[in-house]
Amino acid sequence: MLLSYLRGIKCGYARPAGRAGRGRRTAVHARVTNVRIDPDLLEGVVNTVRGTVASSAAEQKGFKGLMMMSDPETGEGLVISLWETKEDLEASEASGYYEEQLGRVASALVDSSVRQVYGVNLLRTESGAEDRTLHLR
């Protein structure tokens, strides 16, 4: 499912302003939320994220993809959302969207979540015999 969202993202790099030739800037940004979920409630959280959260995310300006991964034994996991620009990501927080989605699963969280933002430099996926390396901008 993530790959289907990412197929529409333009590939390549853009140079950061003021740093010509020194590194690269991405136009795709990831919000990574570290979570610890009660293992007994994990399946319900996955269903909520797969359904309601993913549907709501798809309606947000600049949304490009959503991924959730977890350890079923400990309940530790990551929720990663991809955004076309940092401004789109920040707007999803300023509007209350992010907190609303977190609230949908808050009762299943064991600890408070930790949120970080990253620029996406590279995403490599393999599908059958086809190998794709996407340099995202």
Automatic annotation (TrEMBL):
Alphabetical list of InterPro entries matching this protein: ABM_dom (IPR007138), Dimeric_a/b-barrel (IPR011008)
ABM domain boundaries: 29-117
One Pfam family here: ABM
Protein name: ABM domain-containing protein
Taxonomic source organism: Rubrobacter marinus
Organism lineage: Bacteria, Bacillati, Actinomycetota, Rubrobacteria, Rubrobacterales
